[in-house]
């Protein structure tokens, strides 16, 4: 007689929602980490009011009152929401959503409609460039700058479109915080960027307003009412640069923290599963780096092209005045060119630095690991970790169009030099107005002298002919 019988009513293949393994006889714990979000166990409605409800996700999750990443970048997010650019809806802490009928979206639509109406009203009182009596080609190009300055108006609906993906990134950071807290035995993710975020939210509006005022005072007929939309759009452009810096800096800080914790854990490494847990956490961080570029794809593609156009026109306006010397009008052009170059380099450099920290610096930590004292399972996990860093790209790419790094800045500068050479050659081929006027004056005096000489010669010939006829008679 067998003492062990199989219970047919026991679920051998399904999972029990109370968190117990489906196979009790299987003593071996195998953990498989994939770069996907695990499927949550559905909640089962109980018929009895006194029954014990199943645990969420089969685990007791650490209680989080607020997400650390959002709270650190909150001042910049608040400014973007005030400008009506980022209609992010937070029904509860740690939950970020995008809803068309949310109050933040309705507020954003009202702000954008007001901005468009104000710009259309000001178009009836067009800004006039301080130009000489004779219009020049370079002055016409400079005048186009004040039309190009209005291009960031297109950024607002683009940001609306990408707000849903940005909300997904913030929710991904919440999941990363939960996993880090479990792995580090209740330690909160030590990201300290709030002061930087607050400084960016205060300093950028002041500097942007000063830049617009300097440009309008030196280049156009200054009217206070006309510079309001320019100030709004200038703040929007540069605050997006600050927002990009904080996202990249968050990736860099978290990558450095994870590398330091992993190096400390290797000194007292026990089971090989600990290495597998760090590998899973790094895969989450690498996915967040890729998703950061995807979520802001169209926004920063437009920003980079806009900055490229502004820098090209501003530098051309400066170079075209070299022969005549620099004047007061060139101050605004110089300020615009310097600020735009700095912002473009800042965007490219921060993304390059974040990608380096997430992948290259982490690989250095893995390569420096001493494997001789580890068991076979731990050595295998470390090798798999190193292979995972090679197979998972961590470059910040804008939707696959191009990677944001220092090579992008170099290529944009090379293209800019080409366009500047073409514009300067085109300017040289156009004759100068003063030179043309002198040539016309010389031609007129030559024609007058030729006409006078011809008339005098004709009169002399007639008089000589008449004298000869009188002598014959």
From TrEMBL:
Belongs to the insect chemoreceptor superfamily. Gustatory receptor (GR) family. Gustatory receptor which mediates acceptance or avoidance behavior, depending on its substrates. The chain crosses the membrane at residues 104-124, 144-161, 198-220, 227-246, 298-319, 331-347. One of its GO terms (cellular component) is dendrite. One of its GO terms (biological process) is sensory perception of taste. InterPro entries: 7TM_chemorcpt. Keywords: Cell membrane, Membrane, Receptor, Transducer, Transmembrane, Transmembrane helix. It comes from Bicyclus anynana. The lineage of its organism: Eukaryota, Metazoa, Ecdysozoa, Arthropoda, Hexapoda. The keyword DNA damage does not apply. PANTHER family: GUSTATORY AND ODORANT RECEPTOR 63A-RELATED, INVERTEBRATE GUSTATORY RECEPTOR. This is Gustatory receptor. It is a multi-pass membrane protein. Signal peptide: none annotated. It is found in: Cell membrane.
